[in-house]
Amino acid sequence: MGGAAPTPTIVALLGVLVEPPRYALLLPYHRHGNLYDALHAPGAAELPLRAALSLGADVLRALEAVHDAGVVHRDVKPHNILLADDGTAVLADFGIACRAAELDAQRRGDAPAPAAPSGGVYRLFVVGTLPYMAPECLRATPASPASDAYAAAIVLNELVTGAIPYAGARTSALQMHTVIEARLGCDALAAAVVADALRPDLPDEARAPPSLILLTIRLWSPSPSLRPHARAARAALDAAAAEAGLGAEAGGAAGREAVRDALAAVSYTHLTLPTKRIV
């Protein structure tokens, strides 16, 4: 990702193919696939808490670098988190990422979004994947780093609970890749997220320490200003790991070992197919 310091938690760009009409990015191969498949493959077991916190810390570490570079990802979700052999979570797919300064200008009305034949303003503002989209984004307000923090909270809760967000609250396909698709059957869900502060079910305290539950609630607060930044959230995650008796750091060598052990037990006989995103 241009502008960010190299970090193992952000996918590396190895090369670019520019051979009209063919254009492609060359990225490292991750044989363990993405986090969605690891969590929800047939027969997948619940992640140990140590592994879940390690992966969550990697996502937050990636967002620290992204936001420090002045970029908003806008589509943080398990499908866009790859799994390295060493147990690191790697944030990928910056296809709809945007400079934070541009989004700030649009939010102030200083830089109207340009019209486009395929949808213009609507497609620029309302992008993402419904279960991971912050309420302000569903109201067509331009995203911000706080919107990425909200998505990270949904992912963190999914890591700990093992449950697909809102799986019991919607009747359409479990894998929704754009709000355009989601509007076909999930208007009620979007309205409940915005108006009623509906959120996924939290884990019980037998599974997660109270400080982890509190962090999740703060990260998915309806108010963007109340959500901690990625760096502060990672520090709070370290504190939650300590409260759970897992040491002073949510990630680290022990966390990555727990992730590797969990990946070794996952069957990849059924992987999700690439899905075209409409943005």
How does the major sheet shape up?
Answer: 2 strands, antiparallel
Spell out the helices and strands N to C: EEHHEEEEHHHHHHHHH
Q: What's the N-to-C terminus distance? A: 19 Å
Rg over CA atoms: 18 Å
Helix content: 25-40%
Q: How much β-strand is present in the residues?
A: 5-15%
Structural class: mainly alpha
Strand order of the largest sheet: 1-2
Helices, by number, come to 11
Secondary structure: number of strands: 6
Shape: globular
Task: Summarize the SSE layout with pairings.
Elements: E1 15-19, E2 22-26, H1 35-40, H2 49-68, E3 71-72, E4 81-83, E5 89-91, E6 98-99, H3 100-108, H4 121-125, H5 135-138, H6 145-161, H7 179-182, H8 187-195, H9 210-219, H10 230-243, H11 252-264
Antiparallel strand pairs: 1-2, 3-6, 4-5
Helix pairs in contact: 2-6, 2-10, 2-11, 6-9, 9-10
Can you offer a commentary on this structure?
- The chain has 279 residues and is mainly α.
- It is 40% helix and 7% strand.
- The protein is built from eleven helices and six strands.
- The protein has helices at residues 35-40, 49-68, 100-108, 121-125, 135-138, 145-161, 179-182, 187-195, 210-219, 230-243, 252-264, and strands spanning 15-19, 22-26, 71-72, 81-83, 89-91, 98-99.
- It has a two-stranded antiparallel ribbon. Strands 3-6 form a two-stranded antiparallel sheet.
- The longest helix is centred in the first third of the chain and has 20 residues, at 49-68.
- The protein starts with 14 loop residues before the first strand and ends in a 15-residue tail after the last helix.
- Residues 114-124, 171-184 and 273-279 have low confidence and may be disordered.
